[in-house]
Amino acid sequence: MPRFSTSVSALRSSAIRELMSLASRPDIISFAGGMPGNELFPVEEVEELFRHLDPKAKRAAFQYGPTPGLPSLLESLGGFLERKGLPVKKNRLMITTGSQQALNILAKAFVDPGDRVLTEYPCFIGAIAAFRSCGAEIVSIPVDEEGIDIGLLEAESIRTDPAKFLYVTPYFHNPAGMLYSTDRKRQLIATLQGKDIPLIEDDAYGDLWFSEEHLDRLKPIKAIDPEGIDVCYTGSFSKILGPGLRLGWLLAPEPIFEKCELIKQSADACSPSFTQVIADAFIRSGKIEPYIASVRQEYQRRATCMSEALRRHLPGYVHWNEPKGGFYIWLTLPEGTDASTILKRAIEGGAVFVIGSTFDPQGTRNNAMRLSYCNNSPEEINRGVPIIADAIRSICG
Amino acid sequence: MPRFSTSVSALRSSAIRELMSLASRPDIISFAGGMPGNELFPVEEVEELFRHLDPKAKRAAFQYGPTPGLPSLLESLGGFLERKGLPVKKNRLMITTGSQQALNILAKAFVDPGDRVLTEYPCFIGAIAAFRSCGAEIVSIPVDEEGIDIGLLEAESIRTDPAKFLYVTPYFHNPAGMLYSTDRKRQLIATLQGKDIPLIEDDAYGDLWFSEEHLDRLKPIKAIDPEGIDVCYTGSFSKILGPGLRLGWLLAPEPIFEKCELIKQSADACSPSFTQVIADAFIRSGKIEPYIASVRQEYQRRATCMSEALRRHLPGYVHWNEPKGGFYIWLTLPEGTDASTILKRAIEGGAVFVIGSTFDPQGTRNNAMRLSYCNNSPEEINRGVPIIADAIRSICG
Fold first, then answer.
1. Do residues B52 and A31 make contact, with C-beta atoms less than 8 angstroms apart?
2. Least CB-packed of A213, B174, B180, B267 within 10 Å?
3. Is residue A273 within 8 angstroms of chain B, CB to CB?
4. What is the pTM of this model?
């Protein structure tokens, strides 16, 4: 009799772990990680805020809290989300242990082993792992520079056994970097309306825009609040305060929220009160908006530096888009290229990135690669990009 | 087609939530919670420790960490566990988001829907929820004042379709309060040896003993390290630092650890670095041992006060054991009593507790109730116990 469960055998050890150990070597320039730069965290502000909390709030930081989150944070975060136009009062808000947990909970709420779910290709690896851990059969629909392929989505959405949900990351996509166009969002909404396929809208990077001209494209589908689609909106403090706090959120219609609350109760009882108290103080102090503005500017500086370096060094047959926000640039290589061979060369040269197949739910398509600029100085970027470009040339000519 | 998954429909909203809202009313004395007293948390010590961390450690507190935990905490916690005699080096240690997450991960590693797992009766509600969320069929084996019923365990363990694991909480059981005898542990080990049924040993309360004479009984089965049983040992900072940090641990053999690491990756990527940095500093500063000694003393004071009050006020037909440690006293009422009716009366009188059926995986047996003394002053205990005793008399005569 097999000892372990079926669902765990569907989980694969990702190559990311190995990359991360390479990435910590001082002689290697890493464009692999998806973490904010350590030097950008608001350490002193948070320490100061904690010091001035009243003793009751400090003690509450050590105590269990309600499963959906500390009431004070639900209120302050609710206000933060309402200022983005999100329909907080028409839905229920839950604090999760990172938005990774929100994806895991949603998968558990909807998916029985063998059920189909729809994602984009490429797709955030955390989502692939969460969906697979529930035994989902993942059907991935390609994106272009404006969003998901609507024709393919339409074909999937009219099947007689509808998928359990569609998962998308429309705002500075991980790993594709792309921002959905307003038109593509409109088409996506029209395709799903009345189809009984809930939408999971992952907005972990939306605050990190580089130009106000894109604010319109950044309006969440959840904020558009379309009739006839259950939108489950997820977000995170990871990119706007610090991933080490492990705080994300889920905004969902009441019936879905109720199931998710039971699942969260059985998963970890509640998210850390300690960091919830901190996040609450960070929002209430008014420090979050200027902090976001400052990291936005810093990531834009790094992004600009990387795109300039790519323009200078990459061969013309590599396709990529100028980043409009977020952390990533996605390079598409000539059809048939195996990015693993390029990675091997790049490591020899002293730089790492993540290969495309990591973000493919089928794990096969590999003529692409993700470069992060979020955690590198301009100097590192300027040293690292030529190494990547040389590695590409050495394989693709 | 049903919208939600099968596993979520197995989860039930527990009555605990409603009780907790009652428990927060100032006019009600609550013996319902399982949380440490707010006034006992080492708030100033932790603030002081954080202030003196070097800037690098502070920044790391905001960053993602490795899935199994921050290396520095794995090292310091490993030392803490080795001082209890646990075979840390022969196993792998993982930091989890509370020990609730460790139970959830283990269930996910072993259980496919419909698989049998063995627990005690009564059983920790968090474990019931975690196991049920994976579709487990829970078979619960009664405990007496020395531990689990060995005859019934033996009968279950020789079935041709062995259960996926046995879950026990031998040290100041939640809710039964009881501490396993050394003999019963020996019998449990002999029963499981060579049976291919892993043991999950939950030791969330073991540090909270009231007398050194019990130290021998407190030696974990994991520390005895019996041949031929895979012991997965779980523990928690919740009772020895603060549940709001959401930090627990799992010590398990390598092959089980590997599966658990993949599951944790898909669950929440990593536990909060912020609170891991704090727990690490708390251990390394040497402050954890004196802190544990001080709360031990305080809980003993509360326990003594409650047992004296129970002796004074309870009718002779109510059975219970003098607590030797931990948070709880379990009252067994005459056969056929429905504790719900007693709870109703007690609430009218101004006191709450948790009814026995909450801790029954089958949700039926209800001639018992759990009283917590962990979060009450002696004055509250002395006011509350007579209310409980009156409620019992009004129903049972």
1. no
2. A213
3. yes
4. 0.97
pLDDT band at B223 (very low <50, low <70, confident <90, very high): very high
Task: Give the number of other Cβ atoms within 10 Å of residue A107's Cβ.
Answer: 27
Task: Please judge whether B275 and A275 are an interchain contact, meaning their C-beta atoms are less than 8 angstroms apart.
Answer: yes
Closest by Cβ to B267, choosing from A35, A67, A101:
A101
Q: What is the CA radius of gyration of chain A?
A: 21
Read off the amino acid at residue B22: L
Asked whether the beta carbons of residue A50 and residue B47 sit closer than 8 angstroms, the reply is: yes
- Structural domains in chain A plus CATH codes: 6-42+290-396 (3.90.1150.10), 46-284 (3.40.640.10)
B151-197 pLDDT, tens digit per residue, is 999 999 999 999 999 999 999 999 999 999 999 999 999 999 999 99
* Mean pLDDT score across all residues of chain B: 95
Cα dist from A340 to A289, A355, B255, B306, whole Å: 40, 6, 28, 66
Q: Compute the average pLDDT of residues A272-300.
A: 98
Is A120 strand, coil or helix?
Answer: strand
Q: Is B98 close to A5, i.e. CB distance below 8 A?
A: no
CA A331 to chain centre: 18
User: Which of A40, A58, A137, A246 to mutate to probe the B interface, most B CBs <10 Å?
Assistant: A246
pLDDT tens across A319-339, in order?
999 999 999 999 999 999 999
Q: Which residue of B has its CA nearest to A69?
A: B244
Question: Are the CB atoms for B210 and B176 separated by under 8 Å?
Answer: no
What would the two tokens of residue B167 be? 């879950």
Amino acid at A182: T
A257, A216 in Cβ contact below 8 A?
no
Average pLDDT over residues A61-72: 96
Q: Does A108 touch chain B (CB under 8 A)?
A: yes
* Cβ contacts of A134 on chain B, cutoff 8 Å: 5
Is A54 near chain B, with CB under 8 Å? no
> Is A5 at the interface with chain B, CB within 8 A?
yes
A388 CA to chain B: closest CA distance, Å?
26
Which chain A residues are closer than 8 Å to B104 by Cβ? 266-268
Strands, sheet with B147-148, edge to edge from the N-terminal-most edge strand: B92-96, B248-252, B231-236, B199-202, B166-168, B116-121, B137-144, B147-148
ipTM for the predicted complex comes to 0.96
Residue type, B388: I
DSSP, res B249 = E
Chain B 232-251, residues with CB within 8 Å of chain A CB atoms? 238, 241-246
Kindly identify which residue of chain A lies nearest to residue B277, measuring between CA atoms: A244
Angstrom distance (rounded) from CA B296 to CA B289:
10
Write down the H helix ranges in A269-325.
Answer: 273-284, 288-313
Distance from CA of B121 to the nearest CA of A (A): 19
Return the half-sphere exposure (C-beta side, CA atoms, 13 A cut-off) of residue B391.
24
- What phi, psi does A203 have (nearest 5°)? -120, 60
d(CA A142, CA A152): 8
Start-end of H helices in chain B: 6-9, 16-23, 43-51, 55-62, 71-82, 98-110, 125-133, 150-157, 182-192, 221-224, 254-268, 273-284, 288-313, 339-349, 378-396
